[in-house]
């Protein structure tokens, strides 16, 4: 692992995580190249900012669940190749029911170059500390649909407020939202803004 990176579960004690791309539970339907363990890593600077988010979230009765941090370039390449393959009915119905698979890149749901590969992006959500239940957000992680956009119509008032709560927390500690994905945030002052890494998640 690059010396500027850390395991986020070690750097942020008590944080929950589920590294989706290390499992079969993701839009490709299989573990993704470059992810060898179900752990999440990120830059030291991002870990420091997320510690602040976690502390503030706990004051409000919430915890953080992380889904993805650093993403090797080989994983990004795999996503692009996967998008060129034939449709998979199970993946389509769950993750992209209203778009054509080959339009994912042009619509902004996958990228040829990802801020995740710089160690400067994080995918996450909130859960209630008292019950460990995820807050309803109006759509699952990696749902490639207008429902996932910030300000989306068709979600409940409570779901919209939960998204705003997450957004306020992240922005307060130096993260910027991604317009098309309510779960995706980028560290504004990322330490490696021009470097796309390809080391494996060890």
Describe what this molecule looks like in 3D.
With 202 residues, this protein is an alpha+beta fold. It has one domain: Muramoyl-pentapeptide Carboxypeptidase, domain 2 (2-Layer Sandwich). The protein has five helices and seven strands, in the order E-H-E-E-H-E-H-H-E-H-E-E. The chain has helices at 8-11, 44-59, 73-83, 89-95, 157-172, and strands at residues 5-7, 16-17, 41-43, 62-68, 121-128, 175-178, 181-187. A five-stranded mixed β-sheet has the order 2-4-5-7-6, with helices on one face. Strands 1-3 form a two-stranded antiparallel ribbon. A hairpin with a 2-residue loop joins strand 6 and strand 7.
Number of domains: 1
Low-confidence stretches: none
Q: What is the radius of gyration?
A: 16 Å
Give the helix tally.
Answer: 5
Q: Strand-and-helix sequence, N→C?
A: EHEEHEHHEHEE
Chain-wise SSE layout:
Layout: E1 5-7, H1 8-11, E2 16-17, E3 41-43, H2 44-59, E4 62-68, H3 73-83, H4 89-95, E5 121-128, H5 157-172, E6 175-178, E7 181-187
Describe this structure in a few short sentences.
This protein is an alpha+beta fold. It contains five helices and seven strands.
Features:
about 25% helix, 7 strands, alpha+beta, five-stranded mixed sheet, Muramoyl-pentapeptide Carboxypeptidase, domain 2, two-stranded antiparallel sheet, about 200 residues, single chain
């Amino acid at each position: 692992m690059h010396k500027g990176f850390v395991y986020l579960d070690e750097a942020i004690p008590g944080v929950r995580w589920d590294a989706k791309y290390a499992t079969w539970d993701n839009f490709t339907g299989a573990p993704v190249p470059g992810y060898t363990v179900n752990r999440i890593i990120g830059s030291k600077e991002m870990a420091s900012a997320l510690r602040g988010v976690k502390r503030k979230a706990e004051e409000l009765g919430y915890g953080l669940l992380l889904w993805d941090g650093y993403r090797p370039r080989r994983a990004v390449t795999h996503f692009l190749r996967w998008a060129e393959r034939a449709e998979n009915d199970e993946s389509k119905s769950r993750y992209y029911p209203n778009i054509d698979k080959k339009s994912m890149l042009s619509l902004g749901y996958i990228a040829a170059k990802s801020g995740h590969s710089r160690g400067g992006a994080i995918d996450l959500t909130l859960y209630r500390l008292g019950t460990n239940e995820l807050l309803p957000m109006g759509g699952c992680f990696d749902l490639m649909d207008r429902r996932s956009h910030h300000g989306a119509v068709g979600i409940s008032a409570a779901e919209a407020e939960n998204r705003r709560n997450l957004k306020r927390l992240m922005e307060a500690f130096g993260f910027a939202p991604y317009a098309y994905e309510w779960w995706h945030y980028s560290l504004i002052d990322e330490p490696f803004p021009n470097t796309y890494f390809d080391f494996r998640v060890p």
